[in-house]
Amino acid sequence: MSHLNLGLFVLGLGLMLLSVPTCLAAQRAVATTRATGDRSPATRPRSIRVVIVGDSTVATYPLKEPLRGWGQMLPEFFAGQVKFINLAVSARSSKSFRTEGRWREALAFKPDYIFIQFGHNDCPGKGLHRETDPNTTYADNLRQYIQEARAIHAVPILVTPMERRVFKPDGRRIALSLKAYAEAVRRVAKETQTPVIDLHRRSVELFERLGDKGGMVLNSTPGDRTHFSEKGARLLASFIVEDLSVSELKQWVMPKPKLKTKSK
Predict the structure, then answer these.
(1) Residue 7 lies in a domain
(2) Residue 102 has pLDDT above 50, yes or no
């Protein structure tokens, strides 16, 4: 073998050896992403698409209206690399959101992450087209959402439904009308190893700390014990951010939210 050929051979061998660690690192990154749903810097997209699904407590409203959903306020807390699509709609349950084809629409956006909160319209008295049982059909709906989100390589994030601001006769403790649904979310999250944000627990703590009179500032209107004012929805969104465990999203949280207020 000539000196020239020998030199080329040695150079080629050196390049092959240098590429081995890079290939192994890439393989480990892909394996980690599939196992945990959290993308490493090597696989992270240039922008992150987040879809939000839920009911009226999550939805987006015109600025001229007095109520807000936490999904409307959440983008204020994140840098521009995170793109939010809020598909939450008033009066929907974990059952009717699917039967109306809205979940199919959410998946069609091919999101990286999907926040999922239902419960208020799953309760008894909401009609057969919406009602679910927290221990059976509601939990099954959540499992199906999780399975189908993962099938398109999206990471589902469950959110327990916040309580209604209705106090017991003692005026100090909240009447827990959504406790069973919140417990079902926690149970399914643990069973499926899905990230969960316990907005139910945080809301009860907040409402009982403020009391009935002090909590009126959270109401969209004086008599509304379910929906939220801009201040109330922003506070709930801050709880979502504080309890977020997904590192890829957490790193894009702004030091101070980009506040959006009512138009003049």
Answers:
(1) no
(2) yes
